[in-house]
Design brief:
With 391 residues, the protein is α/β, with parallel strands linked by helices. The protein is built from 13 helices and 15 strands. The strands form four sheets. Strands 2-10-9-8-7-3-4 form a seven-stranded mixed sheet, sandwiched between helices. Strands 11-12-15-14 form a four-stranded antiparallel sheet. A two-stranded parallel ribbon has the order 1-13.
Length: 391
Amino acid sequence: MDFDTLIERRGTDCAKWDKMEAVYGVPADDGIAMWVADMDFRPPQIIQRALEDMVAHGVYGYHGNDAKYRAAIQWWMQNRHGWTIENPDEIFMTHGLVNGTAMCVDAFTQPGDGVILFTPVYHAFARVIEAAGRTVVECPLVMRDGRYEMDFDAYDAAMTGAEKMVVLCSPHNPGGNAWSRAELQALADFARRHDLILVSDEIHHDLIYPGQTHVPMAKVDPSISDRLVMMTANTKTFSIAGAHIGNVIIADPALRARFARRMGAMGMSPNAFGVVMATAGYSPEGAEWVDALMLYLDGNRQVFDTAVNAIPGLKSMPLDATYLAWVDFDGTGMPREEFTRRVQKDARIAVNHGPTFGSGGETFLRFNIATPRSRVMEACDRLAMAFSDLQ
């Protein structure tokens, strides 16, 4: 597998590279795009071959039988995560997991209801919740020994009864936590105490570093199946984010019926290209590719963290999972505008701004390290130069 080749994405209508100047003022000609969460790697060859077969056939009609897709998901979850999906009818296909989140909000809550987020967290959650006329209820994560933890005593005290849903990001974006079984059990208990629908977004569940483990929420506590909605996808896993396909997986028949009604009302059906790509990825060849990817990303993680942590005042949070480095600039003593200016104007790196992730993100920037190592090293050199006066 080749993860070192620099693939030119500028000029390809790529959001990550072609929009960084308009969004962040980072010059298109020599800027480094480290914001949008997609990888700069080609997907496994098995996915490329599947697409080539479609193109060779040359007819692009409506997709019909999705049994192979559902079976591939069942195989993958069982073999990679030890999670048995008993019934393929539990699986709904959405246009990615932002759409999946929006569909869950629509199906299981009413306008004005509170939806809980553990912040800082993936910014699209708040966007779709607010757009649907629901209320974002922020439950801030607590930083202990460089790692985020959930504080359920504080969360219990903050509940008003207006909250109807909680959305978990597992593994956590942007902090990179692979939540432990004990932490997930505490969340299950919290959801039960407050009669909440629990939506677990596990899109990063395959991107786990050596020595770490992802525990699917569905394996933690069978007694919450009547309130649990699982969301998965392999678009992050295989660098096929543009396929816009994800899965909402619901074991409980009553919840499943409610979701199916909303899917029907919205007239939703899957994109044939996404189905073919995702099915091809969930295979032994895809699994081999992911294993190689995570070894490579582990090297990127070590290079990036070593360089960033050597700059006085900067701290990169240790990652259990994901390719999204969460860097705290609080130790510089600089206002947010200043350290952000240095990263974007001096280092010429486009990154996500911490406040967009909600409370707790004010002193952070998020860096995507899923790019060839030479580019990660170049970004590290630029950061060292941009903050050279601190050294």
